[in-house]
Design goal:
The chain is an alpha/beta fold. It has one domain: Alpha-Beta Barrel (TIM Barrel). The protein is 44% helix and 14% strand. Helix 5 links the parallel strand 3 and strand 4. The two termini are 25 Å apart. It binds iron/sulfur cluster. The site of iron/sulfur cluster has 12 residues, from loops. Iron/sulfur cluster (SF4) binds next to loops.
């Protein structure tokens, strides 16, 4: 790996570059300085250095999966969401087992290994509904990896079912839950959450679900949706909370930052919409999150060209093929890439493309 040029970077960035080169940990103040850094080339080179410290192989992975949204009925009314329908809305739905099986059959036909199952906070679906669904999926597709339910869905489910968090997660795991997606984190700061999602789980609740899942041996991912009302300091606070929990449990397998998509939502305007902001936040995340192995490029929200560029700003993974996606597409973002296109993007960037499972075990060439 080339050493970043620090001659013109200024004393703060020069000190950060030295810390990174030595494999050390940067501070919150350092992360703030990186978020203000206009030298994108330097940021990319620092992030690339950190990427190769964690993942030495010149390999970029992805997974073939499908996102199924089992219901769009939700009582939580997040202002950034264009996907949900309130109870009683004629456009609200709950998928039947037969409808879900038909979608899984399509996934299997394309060689898919993982089902990402998420939905709204339905007021009437309780633990027995999820146990029956997960058990039926696992009976029919025993080797399918079930990556399901965000932290806020699990906390909502626990409340509705009058169960403790620990018991809810234990029962879901017994029924077939393999891992938990990091969705619903938005920005882990209660001021921001109070503005964009006042009825959603608090920061402490999101972290409590992740902590309990990790303690029960369930691996999870972590996300960050930026570009609404947050400050740079609140982005750093988000990263700080993730790094602390990862120090404690080691249960996160990956981090995925992505930009808010404003179309059809109650939040009229989005900040930080450009590619430079995305690449700066991605690079800062890679440099700060020194205990996360994998960072995903968000081509779903950034498009294929920026997704490819992200591989030079700390990302070592292209996420998934997303055979079906309904949430960001409801907010106007409709990028689609199949397995050959993803493999081509990776190879054209000078990396070896490989298929992985949810734990980032390599399954073979893409
Ligand atoms: S983001 Fe999730 S919890 Fe919030 S309104 Fe949309 S479906 Fe409901």
């Amino acid at each position: 790996m080339p050493t970043p040029t620090i001659a013109t970077a200024g004393p703060r960035l020069a000190a950060i570059a030295e810390t990174v080169a030595a494999g050390g940990r940067i501070s919150d103040a350092d992360a703030l300085a990186l978020l203000a850094c206009t030298d994108l080339t330097l940021l990319g080179r620092l992030a690339e250095q950190c990427r190769f410290q964690r993942v030495p192989e010149r390999r970029v992975t992805f997974i073939v999966d499908r996102n199924i949204n089992y219901t769009n009925v939700c009582i939580t009314r997040c202002k950034f969401c264009a996907f949900y329908r309130l109870p009683g809305d004629p456009a609200g739905y709950v998928l039947s087992h037969a409808e879900i099986f038909a979608k899984i059959d399509e996934l299997r036909a394309q060689g898919g290994h993982q089902l990402l199952l998420q939905g709204g906070h339905h007021p009437e679906l309780k633990i027995d509904w999820f146990e029956a669904l997960f058990t039926a999926i696992k009976a029919r597709y025993p080797d399918l990896h079930l990556h399901a339910l965000s932290c806020s869905e699990i906390a909502h489910l626990a409340r509705r079912s009058k169960l403790s968090l620990a018991e809810t997660i234990r029962r879901l795991r017994v029924a077939g839950l393999d891992s938990i997606p990091g969705a619903g984190a938005e920005i882990l700061d209660d001021r921001v959450r109070g503005v964009i999602a006042p009825y959603k789980e608090s920061t402490a609740s999101w972290l409590a679900v992740m902590r309990e899942a990790h303690h029960q041996g369930i691996r999870t991912s972590a996300t960050m949706m930026y570009g609404t009302v947050e400050t740079d300091a609140e982005i750093v606070a988000h990263l700080h909370r993730l790094r602390d929990l990862q120090d404690e449990t080691g249960g996160f397998v990956a981090f995925i930052p992505w930009a808010f998509q404003p179309a059809s939502t109650e939040l009229a305007t989005a900040t930080r919409r450009g590619a430079v902001e995305y690449l700066r936040i991605l690079a800062t995340s890679r440099i700060y999150l020194d205990n996360f192995d994998h960072l995903q490029a968000s081509w779903v929200t950034q498009g294929e060209k920026i997704g490819q560029l992200a591989l030079f700003f700390g990302a070592d993974d292209m996420g998934s093929t997303m055979l079906e996606e309904n949430v960001v597409s409801a907010a106007g973002c409709t990028f689609r890439l199949g397995r050959p296109e993803l493999a081509h993007l990776i190879a054209a960037a000078g990396f070896t493309a490989a298929l992985r499972d949810q734990r980032y075990q390599i399954l073979g060439p893409a």
